[in-house]
Task: structure prediction
Amino acid sequence: MKYEILARKWRPQSFSEIVGQKYIVRALKNSISSLRIHQSWIFYGSRGTGKTSLARILTKSLNCKFIKTGNPCKICSSCMEIQKGNFIDLIEIDAASRTRIEDIKEILENMQYSPSKGIYKVYLIDEVHMLSNHSFNALLKILEEPPKHVKFILATTIIKKVPDTIISRCLCFNLKKINKKEIYQHLKKVLRHEKIEYEKNGLKIISDKAEGSIRDALSIVEQTISMGNEKIFTADVLNIFGMLKKKNIISIIKNIFLKKTEKLFQCIKKIDSLNVDWEELLNEMIILVHHIAIIKNFNNSKKNFMHMNTENQKKIEEISNYCHIDKIQLYYKILIIGKKELKLAPNPKIGIEMIFFRLLDLN
Ligand SMILES: Nc1ncnc2c1ncn2[C@@H]1O[C@H](COP(=O)(O)OP(=O)(O)O)[C@@H](O)[C@H]1O
Ligand SMILES: [Mg+2]
Ligand SMILES: [Zn+2]
Result:
């Protein structure tokens, strides 16, 4: 059987399968079911948040033979063909590779002819910000007065590069980054269906590191599976990101608070042999200092720290006792500035050691 990567296999095929973007989904469904259908839309927002997926679902809704309350049926010939990518009335244009005016003209030449099979001819222009000025002008003219049977869906990651004149002729939708809890839930669902086991913490780290992109999350999952013999191990995830285990970060901070210089430098030596990303280490330390600040500032500490088990949580609460509340901002500042200056050091290990000396001086 042909192998299909997870991100493609799990492309949402109807509005109900879209994670997040609730307000956009509702608006699109309403406009379809009430037949108040706009001529052109623009979807913008960061990568892997559902722009292309939504554009294709909208195309289905516009052309579906058995549309029900705005949702495409997924089984009529139009829906099936759009899913398979061979629907003749969906014209997908990758603006990144077809920026020239000649390209656009050629594509739009056939526009006046009625759709062959569907109800509307849909022009989906992806990465529209890449078009040349001439191409934008040609597009603008058509957007002004397109034939009744034509719809435009534009998508871009950089809305600032799209001329206002184009934007003002479209219904604009800003796709938000997906929050990490939603990503986590989605990954769990995918893995359950794929019958792939996982360690919870590993999956939580992936959800966090994907930075709001479901595509990125699924790609990392795939990469991890290939490392871990069909299972997602936290250790592999940490490895991919050059991260240390939480408990190691905690003991580094503890050694700093307690001024255990010898032990601290043994830790550094060990880390150096592990191929760890030093900047990532500083990041993790900053996150920990933030946790400690929360514990210190709220009597009833907010306990739902992301990707942290109760054992680690207890340890953090314990080490927060060794740190005076007045010093937290200083620790934070040294780490933040240290992160910025790390690349100026002759090598990262020297940079880290000097940052650690500075932290030790605080006690
Ligand atoms: N909102 C979402 N809900 C569910 N899956 C998503 C979502 N956004 C992205 N994905 C996943 O990522 C893949 C790529 O999404 P896509 O719509 O092409 O993103 P974009 O065009 O915004 O870069 C999809 O096939 C799907 O697996
Ligand atoms: Mg896309
Ligand atoms: Zn249908």
